[in-house]
Amino acid sequence: MATEVKVPALGESITSGIIAAWNVKDGDYVQKDQVLYELETDKITSEGLAEVAGVISLSAEEGDEVEIGAIIASIDESAEAPAGGKAPAAAPAAEEPAPAAAEVPAEQSDAISPAVRRIAAEENIDPATVTGTGKGGRVTKGDMLKAEPTNRMPAAEPAKPATPAPVKPAAAAVPAGERTTRKRMTPLRAKIAERLVSAQQEAAMLTTFNEADMSAIKKLRAQYQDSFVKKHGIKLGFMSLFVKAVVNALQEVPGLNAQIDGNEIVQNHFYDIGIAVSTPKGLMVPVVRNCDQLSLAEIEQEIINYATKAREGKIGIDDLSGGVFTITNGGIFGSMLSTPILNAPQSGILGMHTIQDRPVAVNGQVEIRPMMYLAVSYDHRIVDGKEAVTFLVKVKQALEDPARLLLGV
């Protein structure tokens, strides 16, 4: 009896994906819930698990674009499991040297993803000693990245002295003699490009700027950081304060908490704020829900959770849907000033930038203060310049005088 392996439905708007990697080979014996493949779509990357145990037969290759519901493999349940439940290995023709210290033991290799095996090899960490947080206790890439030194593999026995081998040069990024290289655009990157161009073509986008003195925020964090960490187990960052400042400003200027739907203006009365994050696969904007009802600690925890999911490639469709406003922080990369692009169909996006000590006039005196440029891009079709400027001033005031957030003024 053979069980078909089909591409699962991942969301109403997702119709196809690309098989980024097969974690098994044709003819391998697979266990139930074992990770078979990684599927990359225009929104997320997901893993496909085996529904049953048996010998797998692949009918699609890495790099193939497959439709939702397509059959990409089959598993023969009637096939008997080899000794130990693993795929039979070919007998070696001659005695082989012992594996290097950083190699993953053979009995584990089919239960972990290529990313975990790579980190195990590069960082010399034994996956067997790492507590897995994935399905069924499986060790994930994030688990390996957070592994402590105590999880490192024991060093291999020293070999007999020999003439040192010549150091191999690092692999060239571009093949010798090649002037250009080509690679297929991933669905996620293609979708990002499409959305950015669409936002510029469809919205009457305009950007207004201001600057904020971050002295009060930095003093607040320094004064209460230890107590905050002791009580909540996480650090107080800048982003939660910016989220609260944005919510306060949206409540004062509701025009930026609206969007166009055909010939209608939809006014939102909730505060789900998107936080733009850069991942190896592209820009994503997970949404922190009901920010008006969350404490600073709860917002910080949500951001940490999303950062972990982004690092492990586990952000889902629901995580990215339904935001009313977006915050993006180019300052972490050193950006001093930028004009952020709207995240359609939203009508506003706030750009944070790097904090720099600059001379400013304070009560008639020149002082050195930590200053940040702020930028808000908005859809001029439904947001007037007065509203946008007022919104940004409200954000600036909340950051420069955090007591406003407590008092709601």
UniProtKB/TrEMBL annotation:
Instruction: List the catalytic activities from the record.
Output: N(6)-[(R)-dihydrolipoyl]-L-lysyl-[protein] + succinyl-CoA = N(6)-[(R)-S(8)-succinyldihydrolipoyl]-L-lysyl-[protein] + CoA
Ranges of biased composition (kind: Low complexity): 82-107
Q: Give the molecular function GO annotations.
A: dihydrolipoyllysine-residue succinyltransferase activity
**A single cellular component GO annotation:** cytosol
InterPro entries noted in UniProt: 2-oxoacid_dehydrogenase (IPR050537), 2-oxoacid_DH_actylTfrase (IPR001078), Biotin_lipoyl (IPR000089), CAT-like_dom_sf (IPR023213), E3-bd_dom_sf (IPR036625), PSBD (IPR004167), Single_hybrid_motif (IPR011053), SucB (IPR006255)
Q: Which cofactor does it need?
A: (R)-lipoate
The protein's Enzyme Commission number: 2.3.1.61
Record text on cofactor binding: Binds 1 lipoyl cofactor covalently.
Pfam families cross-referenced by the UniProt entry = 2-oxoacid_dh (PF00198), Biotin_lipoyl (PF00364), E3_binding (PF02817)
> Which segments constitute the Peripheral subunit-binding (PSBD) domain?
111-148
Segments of this protein annotated with the region Disordered: 82-109, 152-181
Give the residue spans that cross the bilayer.
none
- Which top EC class is named for this enzyme in its record? transferase
Please name the CDD domains in this protein's record: lipoyl_domain (cd06849)
Q: Which residues form the Lipoyl-binding domain?
A: 2-76
* GO biological process entries: L-lysine catabolic process to acetyl-CoA via saccharopine; tricarboxylic acid cycle
Pathway recorded for this protein: Amino-acid degradation; L-lysine degradation via saccharopine pathway; glutaryl-CoA from L-lysine: step 6/6
- Record keywords: Acyltransferase, Lipoyl, Transferase, Tricarboxylic acid cycle
Q: Summarize the protein's role.
A: E2 component of the 2-oxoglutarate dehydrogenase (OGDH) complex which catalyzes the second step in the conversion of 2-oxoglutarate to succinyl-CoA and CO(2).
Query: Which family, according to the similarity comment?
Result: Belongs to the 2-oxoacid dehydrogenase family.
Identify this protein by name.
Dihydrolipoyllysine-residue succinyltransferase component of 2-oxoglutarate dehydrogenase complex
From what organism does this protein derive? Answer: Pelagicoccus mobilis
Q: What is the lineage of its organism?
A: Bacteria, Pseudomonadati, Verrucomicrobiota, Opitutia, Puniceicoccales
Q: Which gene encodes it?
A: odhB
